[in-house]
Amino acid sequence: MLAASVGLSVSTSGCLQHVRSIVNRNEVEQLSLTITTLSADGDRESIQLAQDISATLETAGIDIEIDMQSREAFRRSVLINHDFDIYVGRHPGDIRPDFLYETLHSKFADESGWQNPFGFTNLTFDTYLDRQQRAGGEEREQAVSQTLEALALEQPFVPICVPHEFRLARTDRFDGWEQGHLATRMGYLGLDPPTTEEAVLRAVHTDSRPSQNLNPLAVEFRNRGLITGLLYDSLAVPRWSEGGADAGGSDEETDGIEEDDDRTYTSWLGTDWTWNGNGNENENENETGDERTENGSSTDTDTDPDIELNPDADLEPTGTLTVTLREDCQFHDGHELTADDVAFTIDFLSDTTRDDSEFPAPSPRYRGHVDPIADVVKQGTYELEFTCTASEPVAKRILEIPILPAHIWDERTETASIPAITVADGTTEALITDNLPPIGSGPFQFENRTEREFVTLERFDEHFTRRESVALPEPSAETLRIRIDPRSTSAIELVETDDADVTSLALESYVVDDVLAAESEREQTSDADPLEVIESSTGSFYHLGFNARTAPFSNPRFRRVIARLIDKEQLVSDVFYGHARPIAAPVTREWTPDSLAWTGTDPETPFLGTDGELDVEAARAAFEEAGFRYDDEGRLRVRY
Amino acid sequence: MLTQLLLQVAVAVSILLSVALAGVVGRDRLSLLREEWKSRLRTSAPAIALLLAILLLNRIMRQQGRSLSQEYGVHMTEVFYTIEGEFVLLFQAIASPEANAYFSISYVYGYVFLLIFPVVAYAALPKTIDFRRLLIAYSLNYAIGLVFYILFIAYGPRNVFVEELTQTMLYDNNPQVQYLTTEVNRNTNVFPSLHTSLSATVATFAYQTRSTYPRWFPIAVCLSISIMVSTMYLGIHWGIDVLAGLALAGFCVSLSTYLVDRWSLTAILKQVRERVHEYRDTVTTPSQKNS
């Protein structure tokens, strides 16, 4: 009996070994992925891009599902929970390429917000980004080109196109729309007539989120910071390059940006600032005739012990930025705005728990702006010195952050609690509060709102732009009423019927042709209708993001093949009716290196096919070359 | 703009109503209603209260339930698309400016009229049973619809066939309409189609009462079919939503028949009152003895 069983087990053991090695191999399955995107009510272009891309990928043998989400839910899945395979959406972008640092640096892969939602980690790439962050002068341009070329090679995300922005405005009640960019606060200031009592500026906004939440740190609810900019002041205002670099129609190259202070920032809450570089390059540039003479290479002597922002010892400080604030400014609730609030804001953005919790919870917004600030030293009520670990142009991004009132946000450091629901650690009150009413120091103050209907802002008469001595554009209207209207067609109708003065968000592409046709008709018939189509440049772009945390999206070869399945030129004409610029590099024209300039096709990852029609054989060959396999039925198989 | 539009709808619907009331219900019934409305209202008070409560709840929950739905709801858009494919695009074959106008009007004005008219018409009947059944059926439709809206997250076809439906989309052709229909903000409330279920409910009632209101029956059927088609033609609902709406209507009509007159509130009250009396008697008797 015993012998029999021993004999049996011996005889089967070889077989079992064989079975185990078969069973323990995970199955190679058909690649099935979900494209997360917005519904047509949220962003018409995104869903159309996703649909076109999914159709192409399906012909290449990939099983695709499209997950449509609302604006907030989309951002929550992609930017906070990183719960996606591939997403298609719009990146806020920037007019300067410095945002690439937080967008792709591996040290941000674990954070939420627009910093590295892809979970892209590549040490070589990090060194390019570090170099871009710290290089100045000509080296900076080289470093940016190098980063962009590496990006085109690695494709952590596929930049698709930069849409042209069109807005419709009435000129009979307010004029001077083209003075400031309508996606920023400056578009709504300094309008003619200069000061109108009891006048209401009526904007129609096609996104309902500002009526639900006005927290400048809530990444799900913020777009490009228009309303934040009206409610909160920054130290300085970035200047948009003249002439609309990305305005549609003209294909002319604009001049490269000169790294000259006067052209990059205008003074705002800060009256002037001085950069003192460490070491060899000791540039000393002033904004508005600064009289102080500060000697260079100043290392902090009396460091505020509370503020230690970047403990990364590897980074030698590159210089200091001394900023002088405008005096006697106050918040909407009457509190005075001093250097304390500025220092607090920078500290708070890098850790919204303010060292109370076991680990820091950085703000999902403005991360890249505060990251190069290693230390803040207050030098009086209205003066601060920032010790920076980045080059001058990068360090100066700190001038763009909204200044939060310390006395309000100081109390929002606790981990938020909702009865009966476990809240993820690091979710501080500051990140989830709806911040109503928002108290800032900006040119407009919050009056009231009705969810999904309107937000009303009142002019803040104490704002410094209202002073006689300040020659900056000031709020001319007494009231700014932002009406929420979810569709471009009805927004246009409101402007046409004199129920609104301006569409504050760019019109959806499918109505642009109609609007332009109506415009030229008005010109021909010299109609007295006081309507104006405003075209503006933008740094914002559509892209396809990979979740590089999981296979096969972690494989750069895979990402490159996917990039080659996307016909950007065709998508621009199909989805944007030609009102967009296909791109290989996610930056404005003047920062695009020649090697990545659009030449009618993508210079790095050209489309595998013609006129939107995929060459299936070529696509298969590309996948196979990248090490993937197809089965008999033409399905792409991968090991997860 | 909203008030102007509301006024427009109110005027249009009241004209329709007065014509239909005169033609369908008749002067005799209406004058009787004028005399007896108080007593009929009293009999129907529980049903009216129920409907009002449900409508109020519906209003609150459509706002509040959103976050709940986003958190726990099941995403169904892809499932619907897989099941029925491009079915709703069949209606694009009849797309034309006239069809746009007809279906938009049916969807907005026709629907309001279709829901209000039977309320008045059945209130004008001496027996309140149909009136109460109708109100209960409406309440059930809204209540069950609300539960489904929270459970299932689905986007309508206009979010999937973005390009194909541009020509017939309600909100692009009549942008002002979106102020009336709340769907555009709560764009995930498509399953089931309440436009369909309520229209079908009214049509079923019209069938059941066709001997009383012979002229109403064909009107109700035509109108409710137009409304159902319009939901798909305008890209608001999937075919599946419409089917589910029909099923919901059938369920609500039969349940309303089952529920009405099952319990009489007055009888219950009477019973309670008797109990209270009995109890008081038993309590007071011993105490009297003691004193």
From TrEMBL, chain A:
GO terms for molecular function: peptide transmembrane transporter activity. This is Family 5 extracellular solute-binding protein. InterPro entries: SBP_5, SBP_5_dom. The lineage of its organism: Archaea, Methanobacteriati, Methanobacteriota, Stenosarchaea group, Halobacteria. Coiled coil: none annotated. Residues 249-262, 301-314 have a biased composition (Acidic residues). Residues 270-281 have a biased composition (Low complexity). Pfam families: SBP_bac_5. It comes from Natrialba taiwanensis DSM 12281. It comes from the Archaea. Keywords: Signal, Transport. Residues 242-314 are annotated as: Disordered. Residues 320-634 form the Solute-binding protein family domain. Gene3D superfamilies: Dipeptide-binding Protein, Domain 1, Dipeptide-binding Protein, Domain 3, Periplasmic binding protein-like II. The keyword Transport applies. Signal peptide: none annotated. One of its GO terms (biological process) is peptide transport. Belongs to the bacterial solute-binding protein 5 family. SUPFAM superfamilies: Periplasmic binding protein-like II.
From TrEMBL, chain B:
Keywords: Membrane, Transmembrane, Transmembrane helix. SUPFAM superfamilies: Acid phosphatase/Vanadium-dependent haloperoxidase. GO terms for cellular component: membrane. The keyword Transmembrane helix applies. The keyword Cell inner membrane does not apply. It is a multi-pass membrane protein. SMART domains: acidPPc. It is found in: Membrane. Residues 139-257 form the Phosphatidic acid phosphatase type 2/haloperoxidase domain. The chain crosses the membrane at residues 41-58, 101-123, 135-155, 216-236, 242-260. CDD domains: PAP2_Aur1_like. Its main location: membrane. This is PA-phosphatase-like phosphoesterase. It comes from Natrialba taiwanensis DSM 12281. The lineage of its organism: Archaea, Methanobacteriati, Methanobacteriota, Stenosarchaea group, Halobacteria.
